[in-house]
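Task card 7
Instruction: Convert sequence to structure tokens.
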Amino acid sequence: MTIEITMPALSPTMSEGTLARWLKKEGDAISAGDVIAEIETDKATMEVEAVDEGTLGKILVPDGTEGVVVNAPIAILLEEGEDESVLKDGGGSAGGGAAAKAEKPEPAAEKQAPQESKKAEAAAPAPEEKPAPPSGSDERLVASPLAKRMAQQAGIDLSKIAGSGPHGRVVKADIEAMIRGEGKAQAAPADQPAPEPARQDVAAATPAAAAPASAAKSPTVPDELLPPYEEIPHSGMRKVIAKRMAESKQTAPHFYVTMDCEIDALLETRKELNDRAPKDGPDAYRISVNDFVVRAAALALLQVLAANATWTETATRRFSRADVSVAVALDDGLVTPVIRDASGKGLAAISRETKDLAERARAGKLAPEEYQGGTFTVSNLGMFGVREFSAVINPGQGAILAVGAGEQRPVVKNSALAIATVMSCTLSVDHRSIDGAVGAQLMQAFKRLIEDPLTMLL
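Output:
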């Protein structure tokens, strides 16, 4: 009996990924534990190991395929004693199922049970049949969920499109071709009227139905009015960032607390520590201002435990340990590796760990557990000369600290004007789980630690 190799879930939040490349080819012998493919998630590229042994009979999803849904079949493994004749008997249906599942689901359908997905696929007509709607069925048009949504947004009548997918299924590429004016229209039989549109929310059956379809289409400016431009396809990471940041802004009521911290004492302490630090070998380190910020944030969170919290629909979770995520900029987005128990680690340990995580993040080599599960995030743009900014809360956390550049500013000390190095820090807070007074108390504790860095060494 053939074995389906399916798209693995490489992290708890992964719903789809990109099959970057196969490391085995059809006909290769596979043993359990062999690395057979590389999968790109939104944060990293990871290797996939085989869990069964046999022969790689058929690859269903080729190299470079994006949007492959978790648990969708990506290949067929032949067991001992089986040959390619088995694929001829059952391989076609498996391939069709994989192609259908590889389509990105609509947001509203993301929680659809696997059994329901299989029922929908089973309803597709056989290859020799005309793709006609089953009587009384709500799924009248043979089209992927993504194709339906794209057609609705573009005001395109799905019943007029000749699908290029399995069994005449209309897929994403068909809609994109129609938008470009290169699509193929569905030819209606001469002795029959044009097929009736499936649903008014998808096809414009009447002028009244055409209005919602047009309204759903995003307003655009004609190309002739635009300057020259380049379209850069969204990476998986970019799509996830867009989704999560929009979700955060829409669901978490943000409020902001800003404080100016004088860091002259911190800079002096940093210089003394770095002067004494080993320059070479495994114990070498160089402490940055951000390392002080991470430790100060972690210690402040333990002093104000009410701020080390996050909102859930049933309860507010208050954490007893401060796991601080550190935002690391990448070429096409960002990732937030986590310094676990940052309050229990010294500045040198935080420095080494942050450097290691940042290097592996930029190389796409982080494991999921290394960038998931933080209780708080630090985002520092000071190296770019940014004076201050407000960051968007990472979903699953209750707050994020935005750190600006340290710069010399006039300050008043003992009723006299003086110059100090000042760093503006802004706390973004989810008001569902953390109140304004608690946010202010956290910033007070953070400011005390940053301005008296020796207290961080106790």
